[in-house]
Design brief:
Radius of gyration: 17 Å
Strand content: 5-15%
Shape: globular
Helix content: 40-55%
Oligomer: single chain
CATH class: Alpha Beta
CATH topology: Rossmann fold
Length: 247
């Protein structure tokens, strides 16, 4: 897809201060898309660095802070966008929270936070997005875990499963004006506190026996934004992990 398709359009990327969200924001900017970089207050410096990286490609970039652990903040996000933003063409729901929890020890507050940040917030933001545009594209960032059951991250697993279902439901609800798809990353980045050795160890779980990169995820997002005849689909960018573990 040429730059002409993307040039002049505007994308809102949630959780774009670091990690996968940042990579997506930078890839969009490289393809001449203006970018709104969402972040939480504690990640302001990271968001400013993402903004600087985006503007180096000659596009406009803004930052907006909002804590999605409170659903009302997600619901009002579009109201708080910079006044210079007239319309958002692409929405990438990348913001998420990830923590350890099992069926035995999961607390109600932890479950509520995971569900709110990882699923309810994307729903509310997507609904607001659909209300402000005639046409557009939504891409939800999921996780290869949705193909199985991760008993060590119960709250996270449940929230991503919910977002997976919402992806298909919103594709039906918003059609034909808005396309909605998902990307399910596998072994891409280590959890906070882990390093390269963690990724190498996890690589044996997929068919390609290596880990991917944030650019692999960003390129999948770019593909789903540009292909005008795909909706309601989830692309697993996991080196075949979901396929290997299914059998």
């Amino acid at each position: 897809m040429s730059f002409d398709f993307f040039a002049g359009k505007t994308a809102l990327v949630t959780g774009a201060a670091f990690r996968i969200g940042r990579a997506i924001a930078l890839t969009l900017a490289e393809n001449k898309v203006n970018v709104i970089i969402h972040h939480i207050d504690e990640e302001k410096q990271g968001a400013l660095e993402t903004q600087k990286g985006c503007t180096q490609y000659g596009v406009k970039a803004w930052t907006v802070a909002s804590d999605f652990s409170k659903a009302k903040n997600a619901e009002k996000l579009f109201i708080r966008l910079p006044k210079a933003v007239k319309k958002v063409d692409f929405l990438i729901n990348s913001a998420s929270t990830f923590n350890f929890s099992t069926i035995k020890d999961i607390s109600l507050p932890d479950l509520e936070k995971s569900l709110t940040v990882n699923a309810i917030a994307p729903l509310l933001i997507s609904r607001a997005f659909a209300a402000q545009t005639r046409t557009g594209v939504i891409v939800n960032i999921l996780d290869t875990r949705i193909s199985g059951y991760d008993l060590k991250h119960t709250a996270y697993q449940l929230s991503k499963n919910m977002l997976s279902d919402l992806t298909c439901m919103m594709a039906r609800e918003f059609a034909p004006r808005i396309r909605v798809n998902g990307v399910a990353p596998g072994n891409i980045l280590p959890p906070p506190g882990k390093g390269e050795a963690y990724l190498d160890k996890q690589s044996s779980r997929n068919l390609l026996l290596r880990h991917g990169t944030v650019d692999d995820i960003a390129e999948a997002v770019l593909f789903l934004l540009s292909n005008r005849f795909i909706t309601g689909e989830i692309i697993f960018v996991d080196g075949g992990q979901s396929l290997k573990e299914a059998y």
